[in-house]
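User: Here's a chain of 98 residues. Predict its fold as tokens.
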Amino acid sequence: MSITREEVLKMAELARLEFSEEELDGFTAQFQGILDYIEQLRQVDVEGVEPTSHVSLSADFDPRMFREDEARESLPVEEALGGAPDPAAGHFRVPKVL
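Assistant: Prediction complete.
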């Protein structure tokens, strides 16, 4: 599978990005490299390989690396807002984003 400059331009348009001609050529080459690598991965024989949820979960992984979730009290509002530059009525006040 190959990618064209026009496809990269379309992705840039959808993402509201602008690229110079040099950047556009560079991204086209990078995307092509990614697609080539994906094609290589598709050719790997994985029959009989058990799926894993994490690359570190081998037979000898350290089970302490993942802690159990524990419910606990949250910070008091005053403490949470203590470092806020502009707290307002128990909330973080931030500039409008439109």
